[in-house]
């Protein structure tokens, strides 16, 4: 049986592995859906993955949703590695500020079944979960290339649910200057949807706004585009303003943006000098695998 390390970035908006990403959505049925695309079968129930995003859930261990999403992530990643049966070490993460209080509960949650069998898109998988390690998210994304960054910089990890800020000095996170703020991209989407509802009496599909956030222009009437563009720009600027409120000098302190919102900030934040962007949305999951490998050496 092959032994592998699988990094999983359990985002509120997207689930990412080193090679795959999909919307953090789970819809359970007690009958087999007519199509098996992104359908996971586990314990005589069927789960459609990624069709509709889950509501924001700060504590991911409260129910089985993120466990099912973990199995889906393992399916996607094991398939990429041409494996159906493997001994797995899961490398995951939490915001640095919450790592001390939530780490053990998250490890217990991810390893609640030492051996697990399921089907994904009709294909059988079996995994023996021999270890789970939890690392600081955000920092994992920059670690592989941290030597290329300035000696002092602000790490800004913008995800679906939160904005995690950490001052990095000589490659070491400063625990006295780290924050987890509820300023994620989901908040931005909801704000835009509310404005569209107010202006036009109806919202649009979330995917259309998400695409706009990433710099893609969906097919929409001009009046809708104008409202969306104004909302995205406003939210990005308020995110930058929060950094200033915390006492950081944006004229002199480099900011390294990572997470799913890095591209959003690059496109809509109006930031140029002193800002660097990690555009690879799978960077954090890759970083988890590197950190696990370094930990076990």
Automatic annotation (TrEMBL):
Organism whose genome encodes this protein: Cuneatibacter caecimuris
One Pfam family named in its UniProt record: ALP_N
Matches recorded under InterPro entries: ALP_N, ATPase_NBD, MreB-like_C
Domain Actin-like protein N-terminal: 7-139
Protein name per the record: Plasmid segregation actin-type ATPase ParM
Actin homologue MreB-like C-terminal domain location: 156-266
Protein origin, superkingdom: Bacteria
SUPFAM superfamilies, per database record: Actin-like ATPase domain (SSF53067)
């Amino acid at each position: 049986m092959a032994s592998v390390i699988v990094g999983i970035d359990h985002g509120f908006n997207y689930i990412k592995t080193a090679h795959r990403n999909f919307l953090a959505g789970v819809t359970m049925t007690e009958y087999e859906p007519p199509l098996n695309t992104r359908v996971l079968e586990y314990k005589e129930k069927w789960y459609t993955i990624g069709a509709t995003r889950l509501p924001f859930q700060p504590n991911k261990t409260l129910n089985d949703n993120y466990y099912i999403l973990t199995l889906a992530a393992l399916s996607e990643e094991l398939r990429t590695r041409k494996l159906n049966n493997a001994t797995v070490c899961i490398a995951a993460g939490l915001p640095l500020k919450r790592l001390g209080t939530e780490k053990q509960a998250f490890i217990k949650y991810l390893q609640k079944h030492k051996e697990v069998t399921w089907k994904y898109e009709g294909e059988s998988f079996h995994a023996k979960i021999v270890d789970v390690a939890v690392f600081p998210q955000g920092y994992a994304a920059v670690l592989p290339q941290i030597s290329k960054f300035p000696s002092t910089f602000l790490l800004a990890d913008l995800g679906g649910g939160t904005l995690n800020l950490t001052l990095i000095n000589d490659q070491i996170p400063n625990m006295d200057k780290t924050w987890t703020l509820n300023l994620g991209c989901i908040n931005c989407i909801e704000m835009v949807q509310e404005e569209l509802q107010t202006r036009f009496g109806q919202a649009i599909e979330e995917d259309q706004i998400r695409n706009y956030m990433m710099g893609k222009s969906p097919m929409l009437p001009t009046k809708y585009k104008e409202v969306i563009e104004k909302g995205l720009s406003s939210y990005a600027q308020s995110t930058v303003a929060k950094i200033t409120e915390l006492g950081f000098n944006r004229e002199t302190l480099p900011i390294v943006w990572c997470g799913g919102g890095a591209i959003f900030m690059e496109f809509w934040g109006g930031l140029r000098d002193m800002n660097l962007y990690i555009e690879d949305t799978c960077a954090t999951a890759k970083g988890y695998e590197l950190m696990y490998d370094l930990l076990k050496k």
